[in-house]
Amino acid sequence: MPSGTKRPAFPKKEIGARLRALRLERGISQVELAKLIGTHQTAVSQVEVGRRGVSLRQILRLCRALNVRPDRILGENHDGPRVKRLRDGRVMRRLEKIQTLPPAKERALLQMVDAFIEKHGRPQADRPTH
């Protein structure tokens, strides 16, 4: 491999910001996340502010704890304004509960939600961008 300038493949500040957004989406504290991945709250805080990096093993633990694919933490998936709307965690908690329903009931509920959005949702052009 050519040895160019050393630049981290995954910048710590960007990973930290994505981790914080995901944690907030799910409505969990740094202390709770730390317990889920087997570390201390200070370690989670340092990662979130970009002072500390994460190992591959830690990424996998975070993915399990937050129920996400690695690309959500590493940055290959760009969510845009939707992340801001989910930060308080209310929508994510409801989605997680929906996933616990029997498959037929889950499908029925999602069909109702789709019909409601189709009827009452604003067209994309009318929606504010944050």
Give your account of this protein's structure.
With 130 residues, the chain is mostly helical. It is built from 8 helices and no strands. The longest helix is centred in the C-terminal third of the chain and has 18 residues, at 103-120.
Question: What is the CA-CA span between the terminal residues?
Answer: 41 Å
Unreliable sequence segments = 78-86, 125-130
What proportion strand? under 5%
Order of helices and strands: HHHHHHHH
Largest sheet features: none
Write the layout of secondary structure elements.
Layout: H1 12-25, H2 30-37, H3 41-48, H4 56-66, H5 70-74, H6 82-86, H7 90-98, H8 103-120
Helix pairs in contact: 2-3
Q: What's this entry about, in short?
A:
The chain is an all-alpha fold. 60% of the residues lie in helices and 0% in strands.
